[in-house]
Amino acid sequence: MRLRSSGTEAATGARFGVASMVAPLRRVAMRRPGRATLEADPALWHYAAALEPDRLLRQYNAFAQRVAEAGAEVEWIGGTADDVDDGLADSIFTFDASFMTPGGAILLRPGKAMRQPEVALHEALYARIGVPVIGAIAPPGATEGGDLLWIDERTLAVGRSFRTNQAGIDQLRAILAPLGIELRAFDLPMWKGSAACLHLLSLISPLDRDLALVYPRLLPVAFHGLMREHGIHCLDVDDEEFEASGGLNVNVLATAPRRGLAIDGFPRTAALMRDAGCDLTLFAADALCLPCEGGPTCLTLPILRDHPLPSTETGP
Description:
By secondary structure, this protein is an alpha/beta fold. The chain has one domain (2-305): L-arginine/glycine Amidinotransferase, Chain A (5-stranded Propeller). It has helices spanning 7-12, 35-38, 42-45, 53-69, 118-129, 166-176, 221-229, 239-244, 267-275; strands spanning 2-3, 25-30, 73-76, 98-101, 104-107, 133-136, 148-152, 155-160, 182-187, 204-208, 211-214, 233-236, 253-256, 259-263, 279-283, 301-305. The strands form five sheets. Strands 1-6-5-4 form a four-stranded mixed sheet, with helices on both faces. It has a three-stranded mixed sheet with strand order 3-2-16, with helices on one face. Helix 9 links the parallel strand 14 (259-263) and strand 15 (279-283).
């Protein structure tokens, strides 16, 4: 583990800082699919199906436009070219290799070994845009952003999984302690085994401070109890759409309280959120997200969200 001073920039917080999953999204890091992604071997990268490069790229560009239209400034990792061929097929899923806090960024260390070189891309981005790095996970620690979830501005939940181990959790706790942030860890189920990707955020997407979309069958009991302690009401998705989507119907990017981007094609899940007062923008992702098993949250790395706001509703 490396601890770093956040410097004077961290004190201002004008261009970075995140302590919520749902406060208005103002600045985000993304990476366009390059040759490494468009020509990826599905068997090597454990993708669910062969990729259709042209359709994938069109759907990605449309998704990026939706993110910008929601009010977020996009910072491009590795530039804006579409022909990058560095072998990092998963690097379009920018949420996993680093994590933003109120004091600056933490460089993570993905548990999927093929993804570990992505961390250098994130470190270069932060140096370029002037965001301080306050720490880094070192071997034997492993931590992926998909296992990290803000419960409130002082409480961060982490899933102990095939991608995030105890050594990584211990290092993360030490980095966060000076910020006054409590880390709460929960064991995830084995599900489909180590080759599959089951993150904590595979099972839940916060929609507001008091509302979340969840797949209840795989949720850790203690984690569900923590949400109840914090007054978070759960909208339970059904088995059929969860299985049909590979779990991605649960993956919703909140761009503001009760406002977000979700994958099209799962009408019962969308109706569940809309009935709870959520304003959704649906986007086509059958060539982008479903084969690669990563949703809108995975495709974006929040750099700046507004200070956490009170709930927009008193109940669901």
